[in-house]
Specification:
With about 190 residues, the protein is mainly beta. The protein has one domain. It has 2 helices and 14 strands. The strands form 4 sheets. Strands 1-4-5-6-7-8-9 form a 7-stranded antiparallel beta sheet, with no helix packed on it. It has a 3-stranded antiparallel beta sheet with strand order 10-13-14, with no helix packed on it. Strand 8 and strand 9 form a beta hairpin.
């Protein structure tokens, strides 16, 4: 038990993570692990592997912000070890014009989420998730995958992007636990 942090410490076995070394250059996006911070760049619009763990491989695409020196992720894809099942989380393209008045309760506002079977480039089956309340069976990716909306009382600078409520995907696997959230640029600059 750490008194300063108030958390239990569970000794973890060593896990092999592979980070694509070709991505370790540039200014933006940023990867932080402990006290190590690495800026890297990704060719805009190109889906590239970002991180590989025994239970999942993460791929992502970026787009340019103010110029080639500034990048933002617009899509993250978590892929099963056999590369045949995946969940894609993309930021909606129409966020500035978003009007949620016609949406069903629980519908995604800031994310577009797609499940797929087969390769990323030529899947043989895909489905679009309508909202945060749709469960994804653990057997699909071998991990717990849930979605949540950010509410106004959350302790974050922004819980919306324009009129759309921010949403997150939480992925809890055997070797890796991460989340992907829609975020406004103001949070980065803020």
């Amino acid at each position: 038990y750490r008194k300063n942090l108030g958390t239990d410490i569970v000794v973890q076995s060593l896990v092999s993570l592979t980070v694509n070394p070709a991505l370790l250059a540039g200014d933006d996006p940023v990867a932080i692990f402990g006290k190590t911070k690495r800026d890297f760049s990704v060719p805009p619009g190109l889906l590239v592997p970002l991180l590989k763990a025994p239970d999942v491989t993460l791929h992502g695409t970026t787009f340019e912000g103010g110029g080639p020196w500034e990048q933002w992720f617009d899509r993250i894809v978590a892929v099963s070890p056999d590369s045949q099942r995946w969940v894609q989380v993309a930021v909606r393209k129409d966020l500035l014009a978003f009007n949620g008045s016609g949406l069903a309760r629980g519908a995604f506002e800031s994310l577009d989420v797609t499940l797929g079977r087969g390769s990323l480039t030529e899947p043989y089956a895909t489905t679009t998730l309508p909202g945060v309340d749709v469960p994804i069976p653990v057997s699909f990716l071998g991990a717990n995958v849930i979605f949540r909306k950010m509410h106004r009382h959350y302790s974050t600078a922004f819980t919306t992007i324009g009129r759309a409520r921010r949403e997150c995907m939480d992925f809890t696997g055997t070797h890796l636990h991460f989340f992907v959230c829609a975020a406004a640029a103001g949070e980065y600059y803020g």
